[in-house]
Design brief:
69% of the residues lie in helices and 5% in strands. The longest helix has 20 residues, at 332-351. Among the domains are: 3-141, Response regulator (Rossmann fold, 3-Layer(aba) Sandwich), CATH 3.40.50.2300; 453-546, Tetratricopeptide repeat domain (Serine Threonine Protein Phosphatase 5, Tetratricopeptide repeat), CATH 1.25.40.10. A 5-stranded parallel sheet has the order 2-1-3-4-5, sandwiched between helices. It has 28 helices and 5 strands. By secondary structure, the chain is mainly alpha-helical. The modification 4-aspartylphosphate is found at residue 67. TPR repeats lie at residues 454-487.
Length: 547
């Protein structure tokens, strides 16, 4: 070992670049003095988030000491979130959250982005040197591995981990955790599971159990992963990564309702995680739980005020859900939701002025809001203006087209909406997610409350048919079709029941006439629709019976 290495071991602070972020000047100066007394000499002081992020963008920083509360604007969590997202910190860099606040909300929210440690104010030199010195020594010992991870040279990082395990037993936990993650990253699930099982064989650690569950899910052993994740959450209810993975695995299995419930519980535990609120909102939208969706979108928008994840789509989704909730409710509650939606759309346009299509998207929703509140003249005027603008667009994207079609249906321009959806179906014939949305609009171009009511009648009809009560099935399907007369599956369900009745009453030719009228409503059904083959089969069967 040369003299320089000996000095570095004796004084691990000496060669590192430090950044102190705190809005109080006295604390910044005090922290600089303590760091200097520990041997540091490269120390940058900033008061707020913007200069902190800018400094990290143009300079290598080894250690960030950041206060949580920084006054108006981004807080420490927002800084850590953005530095991680933009990859402005290397894997070898340390981020310490320094704060006088110890509320559960703050700690849980900041922990989502994995700071290396917390330091609670007031801080003295002895505590700083002991806590930070230990982290720096670990950082220096593991530097060859973190350098390879930064270079995305994962095989070499794995080799270094394996080589260091017998030599650095004090860092075994970090090395095993990193090794499991690296094996997972390169797709070597067998070795990843071996690492996690080895750790769990010695001690039950949350990160190892989570890693094992992630491997189980990747190996399509979802039921086993779900069972182990539920047990993990019961033992460690604040371990948020387990909730996220559990919801993800459930969603993969198509269990969207239980997945939503998992994220609702997680959001109560850690209410400051924007991306989790967004995922919850998307799941609730898919489950037609518009009340939960709107609240989750509201939280997503609120948390986005100073977040790198802020996006215009969050504002638009909130306005759309509020539009659905206020539809047809002209009382105080409905008007309040509609006004909130108008305000959100206005805020969105001001916040994201560079998106040229955003005002157009905004007015498409505004048109539905006016119509839903009974302001028909305003809605018609706005729709006429929109039609002219949309006709001039060189290309209508899927999201814009779908929302415009929804507005056309709401304004009674059904044929125009169906033609537009037919064009979109041809344009996106290879995109199943878009095709499903097109089908949903073709089948149920009504408000969400009406959709729920129609689906209830449909379920009643299916149960009655399966029980052999054809009369009750016909009644239930007709009630559903009174709400959504062009719903493909409902029309075909009714035709199927009527044909079954005709088998029992061959003298009743009116049953076939009704079938013919129902199938005629589906003549413009796109070939891409999932019910198209069934429509063709029933059409052929009816034709044979009528001849």
């Amino acid at each position: 070992m040369n003299q320089s290495d000996q000095k570095e071991l004796a004084n691990p602070f000496r060669k590192l670049n430090f950044l102190v972020v705190d809005d109080f000047e006295n604390f910044r100066l005090s922290m600089r003095q303590m760091l200097r007394s520990c041997g540091a000499d490269k120390i940058e002081l900033v008061a707020h988030a913007t200069p902190a992020i800018q400094y990290c963008a143009y300079n290598h920083v080894d250690v960030v000491l950041c206060d949580y509360n920084l006054g108006e604007g981004k807080n420490g969590q927002n800084i850590l979130e953005e530095l991680r997202y933009r990859k402005l910190l290397k894997h070898s860099s340390l981020f310490l959250m320094v704060t006088a606040e110890t509320s559960k909300e703050m700690v849980m929210g900041a922990r989502e982005y994995q700071p290396d440690a917390y330091l609670t104010k007031p801080i003295n030199r002895a505590v700083l040197e002991k806590r930070l010195g230990a982290l720096i020594r670990q950082r220096n010992a593991l530097l060859p591995i973190t350098r390879e991870i930064d270079r995305e040279n994962y095989p070499e990082a794995i080799s270094l981990c394996l080589d260091m395990l017998p030599k650095q037993p004090r860092y075994k936990t970090w090395l095993m955790k990193t090794l499991g993650e690296l094996y997972y990253q390169v797709g070597d699930m067998a070795h990843a599971q071996k690492v996690y099982d080895e750790v769990l064989g010695q001690r039950e650690l949350s990160w190892a159990r989570l890693g094992r569950c992630r491997v189980l899910a990747a190996n399509q052993k979802e039921d086993q992963a779900i069972a182990e994740l539920k047990t993990l959450i019961e033992k460690h209810p604040d371990y948020m990564e387990a909730y996220d993975l559990l919801a993800q695995v459930m969603e993969t299995q198509g269990k969207t309702q239980p997945a939503q419930q998992v994220l609702e519980r997680a959001s109560r535990h850690s209410p400051n995680a924007l991306l989790r609120h967004k995922h919850l909102a998307e799941l609730a939208d898919a489950n037609q739980d518009i009340d939960t969706a709107s609240e989750a979108w509201r939280q997503t928008v609120s948390l986005g005020s100073y977040s790198v994840h802020d996006h215009q789509d969050h504002y638009l989704a909130l306005a759309q859900s509020l539009s659905d909730l206020s539809e047809g409710d002209t009382g105080d509650q409905g008007a309040s939701k509609a006004n909130e939606a108008f305000n959100i759309l206005s805020k969105m346009e001001k916040r994201f002025p560079d998106d040229e299509q955003l005002p157009l998207k905004s007015r498409i929703v505004q048109c539905r809001l006016h119509a839903g509140q009974g302001h028909q003249a305003k809605a018609e005027k706005l729709l006429n203006e929109l039609s002219s603008e949309i006709d001039e667009l060189p290309e209508l994207g899927a999201d814009l087209g779908l929302d415009y079609a929804k507005t056309l249906f709401r304004m009674g321009r059904d044929q125009q909406a169906k033609e537009l959806l037919g064009q979109l179906a041809s344009q996106y014939e290879d995109d199943n997610s878009i095709l499903q949305k097109i089908e949903g609009l073709l089948d149920e171009p009504v408000g969400f409350r009406q959709k729920i009511e129609a689906r209830g009648f449909n379920q009643e009809g299916i149960k009655a048919f399966e029980a052999g009560d054809l009369h009750a099935a016909v009644t239930a399907f007709n009630q559903a079709l009174n709400i959504v007369p062009d719903h493909a599956a409902l029309n075909l369900n009714l035709v199927q029941v009527l044909l079954k009745q005709y088998e029992q009453q061959p003298e009743n030719r009116s049953l076939l006439d009704t079938c013919q009228k129902r199938l005629a409503r589906l003549e413009s059904l796109p070939e891409q629709h999932r019910q198209y083959r069934r429509y063709q089969a029933l059409s052929r069967k009816l034709k044979g019976l009528m001849t």
